[in-house]
Amino acid sequence: MLIAVLLGFIFAISILVIGKFVKGKQSWLSTLIPLSLLAYFLSFIPQISKGEIIQQTYSWIPSFNVELSFQLDGLSLLFSLMITGIGTLVFAYTSAYLKGHEFLDRFYAYLSMFMGAMLGLVLSDNLISMFVFWELTSISSFYLIGFNNSSLASRKSALTALGITGMGGLLFLGGAVLLGELAGTFQISEMIGLADEITSSSSYVLIAVLFFGAAFSKSAQFPFHFWLPGAMKAPTPVSTYLHSATMVKAGIFLLLRFTPILGNTELWHSTLIIVGGVTMLYAAIHIIFRTDLKGILAYSTISALGILVFLIGLGTQEALIACLVFIIVHALYKASLFLITGIIDHETGTRDITQLAGLKKVLMPVAIAGFLAALISGGVPPTFGFIGKDLIYEAGLNWGSYTWILVGGALLTKILLYYAGFVAGVKPFVGQLPTKFENVHLPEKRLWIPPLVLVSLGVVLGFVPHLAETALIAPGIEVLMTSTETFHLKLWHGFNTALILSVITIAVGTLLYFVLIPSHKKERFIERFEVISPKNIVLKITEGFTVFSTLWTNFFQNGFLRHYVATIIGFLSLVLGYIIFTNFDLSLDYSSFSDLTVYEVAIVLMMITAILFTVFSRSRLAAVASMGIVGFAFCLLFLFYSAPDLAMTQFSVDTLTVILFVLVLYRLPKYLKMSKNVLRIEHGVLSIIFGALMTILVLKVLQEPVNAEITDYYAQNAYLLAKGKNVVNVILVDFRGIDTLIETCVLIVAALGVFGLLKLRLKTRDKK
Amino acid sequence: MEILLAITTGILYAAGIYMILRRSMVKLILGLILLGNGVNLLIFLLGRITKGKPPIIPEETKVFEDLFADPVPQALILTAIVISFGLQSFAIILVKRAYKVLKTDDLDQLNTTDEDS
Fold first, then answer.
1. A533-539 long-range contacts, CB within 8 A, separation 24+
2. Which chain B residues touch A565 with a CB distance below 8 Å?
3. What is the mean pLDDT of residues A55-82?
4. Assigned domain for A406 exists
């Protein structure tokens, strides 16, 4: 299974080498990759339908409990088949859709990277590796949305999508870490047994909210839905694959996967029902006002995702069955509608529904596919869509409380989705063919076969629903519920409320299709509400954030060195002052100090005088000379206090520095007083405060006992281990010999720098 | 004596920072040197001062038998002195060079990487 997941990534990397080949006439060959994966996963159906669960674990970062462990059960098989199945069709479709495109190789690389990541996500049994794959899908989606990278709108949409899904990813990570800590394991399969402890723990609410945030942002739930319509800037194969069939279902997958672990609470049910319900209605109503085919499909996708979240929220066995069935139904019809839209766009050059009509004359097979897709989408019997819709109504009816609100919402949504399916799948093909489209001709097979395959699958499954039931739905439910009752998917349920609702849906939906004509006027109407939409609010927040960061940065990074130094020193003084004065205790133990002697005092006074002279002198030479005096005073101090090596070093270094200074001094500018007096006083006060704090600090530290462990080690072993009697020297050249070597290197680099600066001739500038 | 030295450390810090805060590049270097001296004195004091007992093992013994000055701060300071020499010499030459090219040693005029400002 590891190979299966990695295959996508391997192909993506190998594009570097075989890119030319993939770009050429043989690009359809890359279809073999998803196709072989599809075959691989199909081969598991017999095992899975018997209720087996296949697990494989590969060690990755064992010290953090992170493993590449994969679990293939009913749920992940359902998603894997969707990913590879639709992947196969999209790969084939792309080879014709983007034929001869300059960056086709790149496109395939992103696409297969996405496929690998998505497979990894649905197969992962380890939370952390799941998170990694989750993020990889966001990243590949970013690249694919921004594929037309010369267009500003594309880049903006890609950034928005990455921002929203990336934020969700962070929430996911937070939730995953908390949950992992709580359960003591990152293996999802091991958490199921701990479900009761997890839901009753105090951090459950936080974990659930974090997971909600992750799932809602990825699956475009209100109020995070707005990145999805923007994501339609991507080429149509991408919209088909990522933004309707697979990636946006990752959030749904997450919720399903954690239903047995986190799902059995009031919080879980009510949040999902409310958010899902609001999303499905909000997006469904938006459909009426759209004229761009892809816009219609985008909003109907959001609405469908809302239905899925809503069903997971209901959480009964019926609802979960409805959810799994609707996932398949939606993938089948929505993917084909997208592919059909792609063909229309490709052949006529427009996606504006107000202009498209009568295309069945020229695009007959596509029109058939469109009509069937609309039927599946509308849930007209005997398609698989009918079964899906029926189950949704039944799940709502049997939930118990608030039945009519729930069912009413679902009914309205389904009616509008019915309308959307017909607008996208039927409307472009019927009516009078405009003269400008008369030259449109049927494209190659690779474009129109994939949607036909999908819709025929949708129709066939309607006749033989038990195929899907035994292979996918039953094993899937097995994973989601602790105890299951037997059930059967069938077309005919007898005369009941659900059937009446279905009839209403179809009748009202058909009526709407004839009454509501999409127009630009309506689109402009809805644009007026754009100001209060979540998208706008988030954009405003982002802009505000940028403005704030600019101000903040300009305040602290204003380019004046003294400003930086003053900030650092000021802050340090605050912290240091706070610590010193909160434990203020200046009782010094004078007995521990050595006595004053005349010559020491004389030297220190000399030093202080020299320092003050350096600071206040108006003459450069005098300042440099008195700085030399400071250095020589240091030599004497070192000499008094038993540090002959230091004295010698200080002496030579100080001499050299002064000589160097004097040598270049005549080339240096006049020593001007440049700052204003106020600033000088301000800086003086700051410096004095900091100096005083340092003095107090030193005195404080001198009161602390000395830890002589290291000193004793060196002193004892200097001769015994290193055969040297001068301990300072032994430390430098023996115990810490490597450090000294590196120090020498630093000096060499400095010397090379000095040499280079002296010899450097800045030709262009010098001539100026 | 330690109190006096502690005050000296404070003065060195204050003087060094005051000089770094000035606009002239020459003063900046002087400030760096003073600050470096302050740090050295601080480290030295932390090892406590011992008069007339250098950390050198006497000729006739293999280990210390008497009191001795702490060799660890001394080793640290030795390194610090040498490194700061490297820094100072580089800085001096850099200032000289910068002045030659830019005709200014005002740090406030060097706050951009753009050539034409």
1. A533/A226, A534/A222, A534/A223, A534/A224, A534/A225, A534/A226, A535/A226, A538/A226
2. 17, 20-21
3. 85
4. yes
Q: Over the stretch A738-754, which tens digit does the pLDDT of each residue have?
A: 999 999 999 999 999 98
Decide: A171 and A213 in contact? Cβ < 8 Å: yes
Q: Which residue has the higher pLDDT, A61 or A584?
A: A61
Judge if A657 and A747 occupy the same domain. Answer: no
Question: Which residues in B lie closer than 8 A to residue A715 (C-beta atoms)?
Answer: 55, 57, 63-64, 68, 71
Could you tell me the domains of chain B? 2-109 (1.10.287)
Residue A330 dihedral angles phi and psi, to the nearest 5°: -65, -45
Contact criterion met (CB < 8 Å) for B21 and A714? no
pTM of the model: 0.71
- Rounded to 5°, the CA angle A626-A628-A634 comes to 110
- Domain count for chain A: 3
Residues contacting A766, CB < 8 A, separation 6+: B101
Nearest chain B residue to A691 by CA distance is: B10
Rounded Cα–Cα distance for residues A179 and A198 (Å): 8
Residue A13 sits at the chain B interface (C-beta within 8 Å):
no
Residue A729 belongs to a domain: no
Measured between CA atoms, the residue of chain A closest to residue B91 is: A754
Domain boundary among A461, A488, A518: A518
DSSP per-residue string spanning B84-109: HHHHHHHHHHHHHHHHHHHS--BGGG
Q: Which residue of B has its CA nearest to A667?
A: B96
For residues A278 and A409, membership in a common domain is answered with yes
C-alpha A442/C-alpha A452 separation (Å) is 14
A732 touches chain B (CB under 8 A): yes
> Cα(A18)–Cα(A109) distance, rounded to whole angstroms?
11
Q: What ipTM score was computed for the predicted complex, to two decimals?
A: 0.90
The radius of gyration of chain A's CA atoms, rounded to the nearest angstrom, is 37
User: Residue A323 and residue A328: Cα distance in Å, rounded?
Assistant: 9
Tell me the pLDDT tens digit for each residue of A261-314.
888 888 999 999 999 999 999 999 888 888 888 888 999 999 999 999 999 998
- What is the separation of C-alpha A81 from the centre of its chain, rounded to a whole number of angstroms? 25
Instruction: Please name the residues in contact with A49: beta carbons below 8 A apart, sequence gap of 6 or more.
Output: A470, A471, A474, A475
Contact (CB, 8 A) for A362 and A440: yes
Rg over CA atoms, chain B? 20
Sign of CA dihedral A239, A245, A250, A252: positive
Binding-face residues of A in 641-670 toward B, CB within 8 A = 641-646, 649-650, 653, 656-657, 660-661, 664, 667-669
Helices (H), A469-533: 474-480, 497-515, 520-527
Tokens coding A573: 């003084």
What is the distance in angstroms between the CA of the first residue and the CA of the last residue of chain A? Answer: 68
